[in-house]
Amino acid sequence: MTELKAKPEAKRSLPTIVWPLLALAVMLVIDGIINPSFFSIRLVEGRLYGSLIDILYRGTPIALIAMGMAIVIGSRGIDLSVGSVVAISGAVMAHYIHADWNPWLIVLVTLGMGAFCGLWNGALVSLLGIQPIIATLILMVAGRGFALMINGPGIPTFRSEFFESLSTGQFLTIPTRLYLVVLVFVILWALLRKTAFGLFVEAVGSNASASRLAGVGTRVITIAAYAIIGVCSATAGIIITGDVRASDAVTSGLYTELDAILAVVLGGASLNGGRIYLANTLVGVLIIQSLTTSILMSGLPPEYNLVVKAIVILVVLLVQAPKLRSSIAVLFGSRGGKVKS
Amino acid sequence: MTQEIEPRVTMRGICKAFPGVKALEDVEFTLHPGEVHALLGENGAGKSTLVKVMTGVYQCDAGTVTLDGKEVHISSPAAAQDLGINTVYQEVNLVPTLSVAENLMIERQSSVFGFISWKKTRERARASLARLGLDIDVGRSLGSYSLAVQQLVAIARALDRETKVLVLDEPTASLDAHEVETLFGVLRDIKARGISIVFITHFIDQVYAISDRITVLRNGRFVGTGPVAEVPRMRLVTMMLGRQVEGHTGDRPSPDTIKMEGEALVSAKALGKSRYLKSVDFDLRAGEVVGLAGLLGSGRTETAKLIFGAERADLGEIRIDGQPVSLRTPKQAINLGFGFCPEDRKHDGLILDLTVRENIVLALQSKQGIFRRVGEAEQNRLADEMIKALGIATPDAEKRVGQLSGGNQQKVILARWLVAKPRLLILDEPTRGIDIGAHAEIVALIRKLCAEGLALLVASSELEEIVAFSHRVLVMRDREKVKEIVGQDITQAAIVEAIANS
User: Fold this and answer.
1) Which of A27, B22, B185, B375 is the most exposed place for a label (fewest CB within 10 A)?
2) CB-CB under 8 Å, A202 with B365
3) Cα A254-A255-A260 angle, rounded to 5 deg
């Protein structure tokens, strides 16, 4: 717990990413103690293997969705329908693989479907003024039904070299899907910080009425945020469906919304909107994923998995809470005094 | 005649400060038994704070409260109710989804063997409404009745308790003329029972229709009190809006700076919106300041919002550079070169989570559109330039704007519009809630901007301010323009007269 002492001192000057990174570091150190071979990375048949690579690999779908979620939460919204969008896009993808379409065209249509789902959510939120949690709940519930309808009877399986290599393949010893995460991150970062989109989303999330009076097109911004998370979810859908080579409308992407929201919050964002932390969110994803991996490695019975996960996450959130941090600062006397000055 | 009777409530030397603002400073208030006492003042005058001290919501920092000759310490709203001081707030604080009977008897249901007897409860509810001359189905949900009825239910609930003092905070704000009459009938009845009523309102006519005495507050200070017959309208408006009309020689724009020729930048003809603003017309040219004067609720803010497209006008027309336009959104107005500093900074102006820099570039950025981002270096340059030019007290441009003081926050919003290089700047209460120093700076800034050729439309409740910088003043009353005063004729006395004469 030595890191707790260090934290308050740096309260103001350090960038926000320090806290999630610190939590991640602690988790990895504990993993290293439990399992000394945790940090080893081997090259087998032209591909890197190891626990760290495994964490990155498995965290990919959540990472893709969580980045979109960071934007939606930044606009003071939330999207519960991401799991259903994963299922829908998986079904669309399987459908067109069976129809023998060009893979690139399938990618385009699948992402388009994701964007459409997002536009639907965005329209409900910004045009009809339905609260985001309810508006996206509609698609969350109905979406899997649509996916089942697209699938038809049974679970359609497929073989597609293109999608398998996209999801489970590797390029220059590194899994392909990791390039995808980097690509999406760069695109979103550029959209947020190299155009004014990020500023507008944060302005709308912080104070929609003042943003409108400052000339921000609040409706368009909100709809765009949901469209983006729709595309992100469809991308995750391609990865998940390509991995299992089947479109399972019932379980594909189940509960991903919870992990994605959690990752955003672990990244230090407030559900009240106003700030988007894209990189922090990715660290949040890694915290969740390394936690899952370390519980499996530690040999704890799997039924403890969720309980341990809940406790660790609670601790991480408490450590990040400004209120607790300042009371820790007070506890540590002189150090606390420095912070206040 | 009331002078011989011992006052019911006496408040002396009441002071109350909130972080950054002195809400009340040495305020006194005396309430006699069986009177309707109007408490008047503009926004921020301290009416609500004074009432909240009386009803135990706030504790005063200094001063004494006496009730029936005994000094009392009112520590909570419950304590106030125990003493017989009841309040009906502006937004009726009842539960609209519950029935009228449930709302009335929420604390005192009649019970039989520990179970609520709805029959008895309803009977008692009906009886307490009957005392106010109201006969309605008490089983229906409160929300299904008009606001007037809800208001009366709230009053009935207050009267069910042992009541000595009834505080009504803007009870007539959302009532029509007929409903107001009903309410006044009830109030006269209550008064006759010896209950004292504190009546907060901003409708001057209603003050004279129902009140026995008047107390006026202004900027957290006590201005005056007296029987209604001894305070003519003119004096009342003066008390509310200006310090001293007589002998005021504020510096005024010299006549040669008044430009009445040239094409109007904005020209409004019978502009209005149903149930919002009746009608206003004016011309506004570059390098000209037009002041909007009037009491609270007279249509000042409404006019500003219509011109900026924050509300859509559906009556009359507005021409910009001689071309008729229909303003639908603020964005459209901004693209035409308009800027708007709203009255409610926190709610409508600032983006509190964002930094000073981000707040300053926001309007310019939305004018340029999403893909032509204002570069990092340019953003820093603009922010630093504005911080220096307007004297915004902040360690750097990256401070969250929510952490600045009121005056500096106002300057940040002004800076937001100035970097967007507007042709017309609309300011609604630009000096509300900011300290004297910043106040003077902002008035000086308005003059400077005007001299640089900007057109300004400024709504303010501070008459001195309006007189100090306006080339023309539009006097608003009852949601329409009643008079336009030009050039040399602009004096506080002239404005007060226009407001008071109905």
Assistant:
1) B375
2) no
3) 125
Angle of the A278-297 helix axis to the A51-74 helix axis, nearest 10 = 140
Q: What is the CATH number of the domain that holds A308?
A: 1.10.3470
| Cross-chain Cβ contact B365/A196 below 8 Å | yes
DSSP string, A88-109: HHHHHHHHHHHTT--HHHHHHH
Question: How many domains does one find in chain A?
Answer: 1
Q: And the tokens for A159?
A: 């073989």
The token duo for B103 is: 């709302």
Token pair recorded at residue B33: 């038994």
Determine the Cα–Cα distance for residues B169 and B198; give it in Å rounded to an integer. Answer: 8
Extents of the domains making up chain B: 2-84+162-231, 95-161, 262-500
**Shortest CB distance from B331 goes to which of A202, A205, A215?**
A215
- B263-280 pLDDT, tens digit per residue, is 788 998 989 988 888 889
Under 8 Å between Cβ of B348 and B301: no
Kind and range of the H or E run holding A308: helix A305-320
At the topology level, CATH places domain B2-84+162-231 in Rossmann fold (3.40.50)
Q: pLDDT band for position A85 (50/70/90)?
A: very high
Q: Is the alpha carbon torsion for B70, B76, B78, B81 positive or negative? A: positive
Contacts of A104 (CB under 8 A, 6+ apart): none
Examine the predicted complex and report whether its ipTM is higher than 0.90: no
Beta bridge partners of B481: B476
CA dist B430 to B24, B104, B413, B440, B448, Å? 21, 43, 10, 11, 15
What band does B1 get if pLDDT is binned at 50, 70 and 90?
very low
Which residue in the block uniquely carries the two structure tokens 């206003």? B280
Q: Please list the residues that pair with B39 across neighbouring strands.
A: B200, B215
A273: left (phi over 0), alpha (psi -120 to 50) or beta: left
Query: What is the C-alpha end-to-end distance of chain B, expressed in Å?
Result: 29
Residue B14 DSSP SS3: strand
CB contact under 8 A, A215 and B308: no
Place of tokens 């006008």: B313
Report d(CA A268, CA A262) in Å as an integer. 10
Q: How far is CA B328 from the centre of its chain?
A: 25
d(CA B195, CA B212): 13
The Cα B258–Cα A70 span in angstroms is 54
8 A C-beta contact, residue B476 and residue B237:
no
Within 8 A by CB and 6+ apart from A89, the residues are A110, A111, A113, A114, A233, A234, A237, A238, A241
Instruction: Check pLDDT > 50 for residue A1.
Output: no
Token code pair at residue B479: 């949601």
Which residues in chain B have Cβ-Cβ distances shorter than 8 Å to A214? 330, 334, 351, 362-363, 366, 416
- Hey, do B2-84+162-231 and B262-500 end up sharing a CATH topology, with the first three levels equal? yes
**pLDDT tens string A101-118:** 999 999 999 999 999 999
The boundaries of the domain holding residue A94 are 2-340
Contact B475, B481 (CB under 8 A): yes
Q: Which residues of B touch A203 (CB under 8 A)?
A: 351, 354, 358, 362
Classified by CATH at the fold level, domain B262-500 comes out as Rossmann fold (3.40.50)
Residues A77, A131: contact at Cβ < 8 Å? no
